[in-house]
Amino acid sequence: MERLSASHYLNLSLDALKDHDLQKARKALDQALALDFEDPIVLGFLKYLIYWHERQGLLDQAESNFEKCELLISQWSNFQAFKDRIGLEDDRILYGIRQYVFGRAMRFLSVYNNEAGAHDPEILSRMGICFKCLGNFDMAVRFLEGANKNRKDDPQILAELADAYALVNEPDLSKVVFREAFFIDAQQIRLETLDSGLIRKIIESVKKDGYVGKLVNEWIPIYGQLLGVFNVSRELRALEYGKLLQAIYQLERELMDGTVEKDLQIPRLVNKYFWLLDYYQRSSDEQKRIKELLLKIKGLAPRIYEQYTS
To answer: What pTM was computed for the model?
Structure first.
C-alpha cells in the first residue's frame, strides 16, 4: 500500500478550511506533521491553525451572530500582525485561512437574511466585506453600495466600497471614494480588509517610510496624492468649502496652542490643505491663495512640499 505524503494531508487540511471545519483541518495537518516534522510550510500552517483555534473561546462567548462575525473580522486584523511575525507567505495557505474566516463570518450573518437585515448598514457592510475577501467582488459592490445608501459618509463603508470598485476595475470611481473616506476620518478605517493593489501600494509606501500605528492611516491620503493615486477628485459644494475652511482654522489653532498630538495633526492638516488646493486650482483667480497654501505645507512638512512641487 502506497504511503501518503505530507503534502496530501496538507491538501486535506486546506479542503477542510474551505468547509469551515477547523478541527478536521487540525487533524489532517497533524498527520502531515507526523510525516515531516521539519517542513517549514507545515509548521507555519500549524501555527496559523492554532491561532484560530485559540480564538474559538472568544466566539463561544459572543452573544449574537453579528458579534461573532465582527469578532472574526477584527481578529483577521490581528492575524495580519501574527502572520508577519511567523513569516509564512504561502498563497494557498493564506487563501485557505481567508476562506475559513470570512466564509464562517458569512454563515453567522445568514440569520439576518430578512427585511430588517436588508436595510441595516452594519449587516450590509459586513456582508460586503465577506464577499470581497472571498473574491466575489461584484456582490461586494452590491452590498457595500446598499450599506452606503443606508448610511452616508461612513468612512469605513466608503473605504471598503472604494476597495471593491478597484477590484471590479473601476479605478477612477475607486480613487474618488477612497479620497472621500480618508478625508472624513482616517482613524475609522480598518486597513487590514482592504485588498486592492491601488490602496496596498500606498499603505506599503507609508510603512516603508517608518510610519506605524495611527500614523499610517493619517499619511495614506498624503501619499495617495504624491503617488498620483488620489488624483481624481470632485468639486466641493459651497457649504463643503465653508466647512473645510472652518476645519482648517480649528486644526491650525489646535496645532499652534499645542493642545493636540502634533504627529497626528500635521498629516490631517496637510490633507485638508490638499483639498483646498484642489478647490483653488479649479479657478484661475486663486494663484495668490495657492502660493500661501503651498508655503503653509512647506512650513509643516518640507519633504512633502518638495515632492508635491517637484
So the answer is: 0.92
Q: What is the mean pLDDT of each run of 10 residues along the chain (310 residues)?
A: 73 94 94 88 94 93 95 93 92 95 96 88 97 97 97 96 98 96 96 96 96 96 94 88 95 86 93 94 86 96 94
The answer to whether 22 and 103 are in contact (CB under 8 A) is: no
Backbone angles phi, psi at 18, to 5 degrees: -65, -30
In this predicted structure, what is the pLDDT of residue 3? 53
Cα–Cα distance between 83 and 7 in angstroms, integer?
Answer: 21
Q: How far is CA 231 from the centre of its chain?
A: 19
Q: How far is CA 51 from CA 22, 55, 87, in A?
A: 11, 7, 14
Of the chain, the end-to-end C-alpha distance in Å amounts to 70
Asked if 160 contacts 193 with a C-beta cutoff of 8 angstroms, the reply is yes
Cell numbers standing for residue 199: 490602496
Cα dihedral 265, 267, 270, 272 in deg (nearest 10): -80
Torsion angle of C-alpha atoms 109, 113, 118, 122, degrees rounded to 10: -10
Tell me 118's DSSP state.
G
How many Å apart are CA 182 and CA 159, to the nearest integer?
8
Which strand (E) or helix (H) includes residue 288?
A: helix 287-300
Note the pLDDT of residue 243: 95
